[in-house]
């Protein structure tokens, strides 16, 4: 790309004293990997491609679905059933033909994560599940790559930047799996929320590469769209962090995304089979692992123990009593099932697809 073309295309940001020609050259030499091309990634990617980041990597194994379109604005109706990573590359290349784009139509895994991440200077985590998130962070921590984090859930979102072993890591901030392990596809999300988070991530990436402004390093930006409030939380290193202080690795088996589907199916009760299950197990405990507010809106009865509280309240349950766990979509109940089985419970089951399946069958 000639100097005159560069000055013309990127003129408005080159005019900024904090970026200038020197900063633009840094962007051109930078290599950024985007993990996930969904709601957050689909907004982040056009901005960093437009800003002239020289090399982009996009990893995502999902296909575009109609339900994605309300928030994943990079895609159109004609793209439904096409691969996200490949489609994103095509659209971004049309936006800026002067950058290099690598599409990985695969899921980031233990087998490929380190090889892929090692090729890039900085990683934007736009994933929608905890397995990918902690895996990405762990590799970035070990390879000392800046890790730009964002997550969206319903009306709330977080954004931060983690870098350097002397600073707090993701585990210092989120040491355990939060209350809901569901992603936005399972529990819903306001379409504009991942869009804003993608813009925030893109801004952090541009600032970090050009060394301008103050980054979100050691800060967590919290957004609540219902109250339209934004808060900055100062982060400190957890002196007892099992990951960055004691070097403990994360067992991938605690994540439901890693469970073999046939194993999970053996403990699943469908909405169709629910009456038969209850008839066969008249003494079964119904265990709701949603939040208090969700339980108050509608429930099947039984006992309420929110997922976040379950590890500390297992002693309230009888390990010999048949137990059917339920949530809204079936995701949290899978996680609760694994927690209880790891605690020695053997007669535990979960309601596949959760209360949503009962609502769709007009059973609730």
TrEMBL record:
CDD domains: RHOD (cd00158), ThiF_MoeB_HesA_family (cd00757). Its EC number is 2.7.7.80. Catalyzes the adenylation by ATP of the carboxyl group of the C-terminal glycine of sulfur carrier protein MoaD. Homodimer. Forms a stable heterotetrameric complex of 2 MoeB and 2 MoaD during adenylation of MoaD. Gene3D superfamilies: NAD(P)-binding Rossmann-like Domain (3.40.50.720), Rhodanese-like domain (3.40.250.10). Pathway: Cofactor biosynthesis; molybdopterin biosynthesis. It comes from Fluoribacter gormanii. This is Molybdopterin-synthase adenylyltransferase. Keywords: ATP-binding, Nucleotide-binding, Nucleotidyltransferase, Transferase. One of its GO terms (cellular component) is cytosol. It is an enzyme of class 2 (transferase). Belongs to the HesA/MoeB/ThiF family. Transmembrane segments: none annotated. GO terms for molecular function: ATP binding; molybdopterin-synthase adenylyltransferase activity; sulfotransferase activity; thiosulfate-cyanide sulfurtransferase activity; ubiquitin-like modifier activating enzyme activity.
